Every structure is written in C-alpha cells, then in structure tokens.
Amino acid sequence: MNGQTLRRSFLTRSIAIAASALAVKPEAALAAGEVKRRPGTKIKIGLNSYSFNRQLLAGQMTLDDVIDWCAAHNVDGVDLTGYYFPGYPNVPGNEYLYNLKKKAYLNGVSISGTGVRNDFTLSDASSRKGHIELVKDWVDAGEKMGASFVRVFSGPAMPAGSTFEKVLQYMIPAFQECADYGKKHGVIIGLQHHDDFLKTADQTIQVVKAVDSEWFSVVLDVGSLRQGDPYQEIEKLLPYACTWQIKETVYVDGKATPIDLGRIRAIIDKVGFRGFLPFEALGQGDANVSVAAFLEKVRKAMA
Distance between CA 151 and CA 180 in Å, rounded? Predict the structure, then answer.
C-alpha cells in the first residue's frame, strides 16, 4: 500500500469517526432528567395488556394468552401489568414468572415491562412505605422476567387541604428510593402521568428532574394530557420518556378526539426515540377485533 493510499484510508476513517461523534448528543447538552440515548428513531411495537382488561379480569384470558396473541400478530413486546398476575399485589412464585419469561422468549416476544397501582400522595409515612415496598416487590418480579421497567403512578388525586409542592416533599424521596432499588436490579422506574395528581407535562418533568436518576423516567401516556394542546405536551415530554402508552384518543380542549398517529410519528421523528411503543386499545365489542384493528393503524403510522 503506497503513501497516497494510506493517507486516503486515514482520512476516510477520520471523517467516519468525526461523523459518529457528532451524531451523539453530548451529555452536557441534555437537560436534567432527559433520557440518554442515541439520536434517531427505532420503534418496536408493543401491546399493553390492559387492552384485554375485561377478558383478563373475567378469567376469559390469561397472561399466557396475551403473549400468544402478541406472537400471532407479530407484536414485538408486551407490558404485562401486575394487576393481572395471580395473587396481585403479591408477586407469584418464580416458577410462574420464569414460565412467562420462557414462553415470551420462545415466541419472539419481549416482556418490556410490568406495572403496579401505587399511591405516593399518601401523607402517612407508614402507608407510603407499604407502597414503596410494593414497587420494590415488582422490581424483583420484573428482573426475573427480564422486564426493563416497572410502571408506577404518583397517586390518584391531590390530598384534601394540601398543595402540589407540599406533596412533592415526601413524594420525591419515595420515587428516589424506588429508583435506587431499580438501579440495583437493572429495572427502570417509569412514571406514568395519569391525569391524577400529575396532570401536565411540566408537572411530570418537575418530578423527573427532582428525582434526578437515570433509572427514573416517563411512561408517556398520550391519553392523559388533558390540559392545553396534547401534541405540544407529548413533544415536551418525549425527551424524558423511556416508553409510551399510545391510546385511541387524546383530549383537545377537554374533548376526547381520535388520536392523529401521523402527528405522533412526526413528533418522534423530530425529537427522536428508540425503544418500545406499547399501545392500548379499549374499543367496544370483540377485543380481538378492536385491538388488532388499532394495532394495524399504529403499525402503518410507525412503519
């Protein structure tokens, strides 16, 4: 190899390395609480098991059936909500968890996450501690199943006679304890704003920044942003999101409106997102039909 060829090869490699470095957003450029990921878009479609809420609660389906449904419809991942596990809020034994993990793996379905019903607006410390332990128990369950996140809530409503800032004084330490535990077990704590105590993107971001942990981020629930323009709120929240809940409706001026999946995709392309995008369909009639129909809409928009 002559000198000119060597110089050309060196320049080619140098340009490639420089381009790669420029493609990564420096950590210093990230706002507090923003998720650290490469720029660009890579979407994996997921199902939130709440889509089959009626069937699961009535005993007409099991979580095994939900995994089978995902496999039959080539869905990449599934969020297996804790409420549908036998014995919830207690965690089932290892045999049950490992069998779900095996079934999902052998069918090409990732168990992306699970979730609990917790309430960190409770002013009583001992009651709040019980909910912290609930989250930790399901972090353990998530770890055993290979789930990457446990979905949690802030709480159902503002406690009577209190204020947002007063509640944050004890809510933030609760989330921090959960995030620290999640870090030890390799499971992200995903905060779902649910038009409950947390109603806006700004409120949710305030909590995420205060918790200040790479193991604590947002489950972006498109149907629970009911103040202001939901699409602006979604765009504001996306840099802080580890995953989604794509629903059939958003609220525009307080009115339920069919979601514009094209706008969601445009926001994703603008802001960037890599990971699972679980959807939740609660249409009337045969759930197998309505869930499959919404899946195809999501799949087409995200292709």
Answer: 15
- 43 Cβ contact partners less than 8 Å away, ≥ 6 residues apart: 268, 273, 274, 275, 277, 302
In eight-state DSSP terms, residue 282 is -
Q: Could you tell me if 78 and 70 are in contact, meaning their C-beta atoms sit under 8 angstroms apart?
A: yes
Place of tokens 């994703």: 268
Q: What are phi and psi of 90, to 5 degrees?
A: -70, 150
Name 151's Cβ contacts closer than 8 Å, sequence gap at least 6: 79, 81, 113, 114, 115, 116, 190, 192, 219
**Domain edges within the chain:** 27-302
Three-state secondary-structure class, residue 225: coil
Q: In angstroms, rounded to a whole number, what is the distance separating the alpha carbons of residues 261 and 259?
A: 6
CB 220 within 8 A of CB 268: no
Residues 6+ apart with CB under 8 A from 254: 226
Return d(Cα 11, Cα 170) in angstroms, integer.
56
Please measure the distance between the N-terminal and C-terminal CA atoms of the chain and give it in whole angstroms.
45
- Provide the whole-model pTM: 0.90
pLDDT tens for each residue of 109-156: 999 999 999 999 999 999 999 999 999 999 999 999 999 999 999 999
> Domain 27-302 in CATH: superfamily?
Divalent-metal-dependent TIM barrel enzymes (3.20.20.150)
Sign of CA dihedral 10, 13, 18, 21: negative
